[in-house]
Design a protein that fits this description.
There is one protein chain. Strands 3-2-4-1-5-6-7-8 form an eight-stranded mixed beta sheet, with helices on both faces. Helix 2 runs antiparallel to helix 3, helix 5 runs antiparallel to helix 12 and helix 10 runs parallel beside helix 11. Helix content is 53%, strand content 13%. The protein has 301 residues and is of the alpha/beta class. The protein starts with a helix and ends with a helix.
């Protein structure tokens, strides 16, 4: 199954909301306030977010006036154009040019972080890169065991310590192993919850100091894993992590399980962060690179 087909299938629930949009455009009237009110409501129901929806409506009014829209299909194409532009500025490509490069994975428990690490490792390996997984979450029971299972499935190297060990020490050993073995990419799992937010951020800071000290010139991606089914709550989580964790991008999981796929637009608009990958299923190859054009096309097809 190709990228478009996977994206199309994964957006089936969100697209049901968009089907109501199609009906709305069939009754399109350029001067109808009801049209704009209904359009804004449908965008918010798809979890685009109130502010982003308001911006889109403002843009639609402007386009309608500038281009003299009279037909529903013209307005529909205008909406697609506006939504696509919301996703354009963010570069979804991972920067992994050094050897080794590092991917630091963050996110609260339950969002699919460990699964995403395994799927990302398998994808990078299929692209010809050697990968080492680092079990930096030493606080959650069985976290290392779960990551080890994914390392075995993906066919990658794996470094862990005992439960309760210092996460920074695991990171140090993983980086040392990567340098000794000539590994291309180190993917580091991190704790999704400690006793409080400050402890969590302190642990992340310690890990980053180890990375900076041992690999001062390395490319480092810090990706936050968000569960698409949590919608705006996930956005709040990302805002809390954005500055303290120095995020470079988002992995959005469980997109196939929600009718609120519009959260992608809210992430790009409110956080200014690129969605790098999306999870659209349970299989190991169901984490796919995010492409704005493909996403919007699959949303409206």
């Amino acid at each position: 199954m190709g990228f478009f087909d996977k994206m199309f299938s994964g957006l089936s629930k969100t697209r049901k909301n968009m089907q109501e949009l199609e009906e709305l455009f069939q009754d399109y009237a350029p001067d109808s306030e009801d049209f704009y009110d209904d359009l804004e409501e449908l965008l918010i129901l798809s979890d685009v977010g109130a502010q982003t929806a308001a911006d889109v409506i403002k843009g639609m009014r402007k386009l309608t006036w500038e281009r003299r829209f009279r037909k529903g299909w013209e307005a529909r194409e205008g909406l697609i154009e506006l939504l696509s532009k919301k996703l354009e500025p963010a570069d979804p490509a991972l920067k992994l040019t050094t050897k080794p490069s590092v991917i630091l994975m963050v996110g609260v428990n339950g969002v699919g972080k460990t699964t995403s690490i395994g799927k990302l490792a398998a994808r990078l390996k299929s692209e010809g890169k050697s990968v080492l997984l680092c079990a930096g979450d030493t606080f959650r029971a069985a976290a290392a065991e779960q990551l080890g299972i994914w390392a075995e499935r993906a066919g990658t190297d794996f470094v862990r310590h005992e439960e309760g060990s210092d996460p920074a020490a695991v990171v140090f050993d993983a980086i040392s192993a990567a340098k000794a073995r000539g590994i291309d990419v180190v993917i580091i799992d991190t704790a999704g919850r400690l006793h409080n937010k400050q402890n969590l951020m302190n642990e992340l800071s310690k890990m980053r100091r180890i990375i900076s000290r041992e690999l001062p010139d390395a490319d480092v991606e810090t990706l936050m894993v968000l569960d698409a089914t949590t919608g705006q709550n996930g956005l709040i989580q990302a805002e809390q992590f954005k500055d303290t964790a120095d995020l470079t991008g988002i992995i959005l999981t469980k997109l196939d399980g929600t009718a609120k796929g519009g959260i992608v637009f809210a992430i790009a608009d409110k956080l200014g962060l690129p969605v790098k990958y999306v999870g659209v299923g349970e299989q190991i190859d169901d984490l796919i690179p995010f492409d704005a054009k493909t996403f919007v096309e699959a949303l409206f097809k």
